[in-house]
Amino acid sequence: MTAATTETAAHAPVVGTGHTRIEGRDKVTGAARYAAEVPFAGLAHGWLVLSTVARGRIRALDTDRVLAMPGVLAVLDHRNALRLTTDYTGLLGTRPDPTCAVFQHDRVPHLGWPVALVVAETSEQAREAAEALVVHYEQEPHDIELTAEHPGAYPVDGHMPAVTGKGDLEAGLAASAVVVDAEYTTPEEHHNPMEPHAATARWDGGRLEVIDSNQGVTWVVGELANLFSLDPAAVRVRSEHVGGGFGSKGVRAHQVAAVMAATLLQRPVRVVLTRRQMFSLAGYRSPTTQRVRLGAGPDGRLVALEHRSISLTSTVHEFVEPSAAVARVMYDADAHHTANRVVRLDVPTPTWMRAPGEAPGSFALEAALDELAEKCGIDPVELRLRNEPERGPVSGLPFAGRNLAACFREGARRFGWADRDRRPRQRRDGRWLLGTGTAAASFPSGAAPSTATATAHPDGTFTVRISAADIGTGARTALGLVAADALQVPPDRIRVRIGDSDFGPAMIAGGSMGTRSWSWAVKAAAGELRERLALGADIPPEGVTVRSDTTEAIGSLAPAERHSFGAQFAEVAVDPATGEVRVRRMLGIFAAGRIVNPLTARNQFRGGMIWGISMALHEEAVRDRASGGPVGADLAGYHVATHADVPHIEADWIDDTDPEDPVGIKGIGEIGIVGAAAAVANAVWHATGVRHRSLPIRPDRVLSAPGPAGAPDA
């Protein structure tokens, strides 16, 4: 057929209309295969053995008895493992976490450190043998406790400046009519997705192939190639379906161990992490202690702002939770100082977790803004509107769109904020004290270079290929809509293939940059293909393919502060007799660029807001000081919000198309959690008259908190 017949006479745009997920039926019927479900002939199974001490050295491993057990094929440890290369900088601009470079030495830097891999014919045999392996240690004293004044704290730049400052902070505070000076803490939090981390490695004709569950095949290819000193072209990583990631599914010990074992045995080897192992090897959000000092005039306008945060990292790798960075975007003052510091402790390395920095940082900053509003006698929404900056408070750059004020105005209208009595402890419903709270949200809006191909077939259909990752966001569906509009054909004529490194380099699913980056590449490829087809030539049997590369286009963007914004509103009920806190309703209004698929986007926003409820009221990982390990390292001991905890949650958005983006996208994956915990905490204050500056707001903390002066009896 000719190219001209592939176009419809009048194409109605589909970006911005709701569509169910392309792969939805396969997922709910079980047809979609995840990383641990793909069959292979001759498959062997590896089981990681993790250290049972928090610090020390491996003195001996009793492997002989384990090797004699039924089905056992090999035991890998520091004495016989392949040597790895770790002296490199990876895709994300950081050095690799040595935790993934398994079995390179006899040192143990934290509880749950990988010390061996047992490989057997079946998963059951591997697990039994791994649990039978006796490891002898020389144990050393360990330190796992993070404190605000830890002597080992030091500033860390991480992926942004460690310290920023302008103006005389102390003078500004001294001259302020109203001052807030408070310390806020957030606990260690884990983002274990429903699908455990899993990888299968095999060699095929001299080429390494890894079937994996990850957030970016390009990322994993680069790391494995570097670690094993391979040509990246000799490594193929596939990750078709991913059951959640939230920042945790990068390069971990299980992938590297699987490659090691497959290389030794020359047969496919699969390694799957258990839920308990994920608490040691999948990363987590560091606990934070944050001090916020605000100085304002009687009208609530900020004169001085200081936001300092301290978090922890491991002794083997440096990772910072940049909680103070949120203040560098949200509010300005003549004296404006922020600092992120970190302490090295004998714990596993933290990692990116949904809205890294912004989630815990917004709790502290937005709670402090609420305290300032109370002291000034100004409505919390009005206080924020009065402190809207014209340019980036630290960078001085213009905002590439900042519609936060519109979010607050629309949210306040829909939430019924005007009917609110600002005084605390004024509303009751039987035994319940009722309160409402609000908070602002922001998250960076970035894009990274990606490549994509678009192919026209003789039957009038099209195939789009890109090394994207769908970690539950509906990326396939969104990219299909973008391609359909660029080609001006119905979506059912588009086939989207993702999750294969052979499709070329692409951005990871992270930093709320995935859909924006991939759509840029897809639209470029599809648009050029449509232009080529418009010439009317016949389409050959192999099709017509166009490849795009957005490196130059994205690199030419002018410097600016690019962010999505939002306003969070929450209503809570607190039982003063039991300390129970119930969220009754939440509303989030967001300015997050053009929404590609409203159906999946609303679920993204709501999912983040639900996580905010969980952060505010439930989530808290506790480490045992004696062992150095987490207490209750499973989804029974680590509490998260369940269906009964989730009330009516409404998420919506305002028109906020980004003119610099080819599709108008900004990014929505993480902003839903930002500010959500603060809105809940502020609502708890409004209900009870008591400030809770430490999360989660557990019943015992509600009961033990001192009552407000002059408050009526519960």
Automatic annotation (TrEMBL):
The record's keywords, sorted A to Z, are: Molybdenum, Oxidoreductase
Family matches, as Pfam families: Ald_Xan_dh_C (PF01315), MoCoBD_1 (PF02738), MoCoBD_2 (PF20256)
- Kindly give the SMART domains that the UniProt entry links to this protein: Ald_Xan_dh_C
Q: Per the database record, which ranges form the Aldehyde oxidase/xanthine dehydrogenase a/b hammerhead domain? A: 29-141
- Matching InterPro entries, A to Z? Ald_Oxase/Xan_DH_a/b, Ald_Oxase/Xan_DH_a/b_sf, Ald_Oxase/xanthine_DH-like, AldOxase/xan_DH_MoCoBD1, AldOxase/xan_DH_MoCoBD2, AldOxase/xan_DH_Mopterin-bd_sf
Plastid: is it a keyword of this entry? no
Which Gene Ontology terms cover its molecular function? iron ion binding; oxidoreductase activity
Coiled coil spans: none
Which PANTHER family is this protein grouped with? ALDEHYDE OXIDASE 1-RELATED (PTHR11908:SF132), XANTHINE DEHYDROGENASE (PTHR11908)
- The protein's name is Oxidoreductase
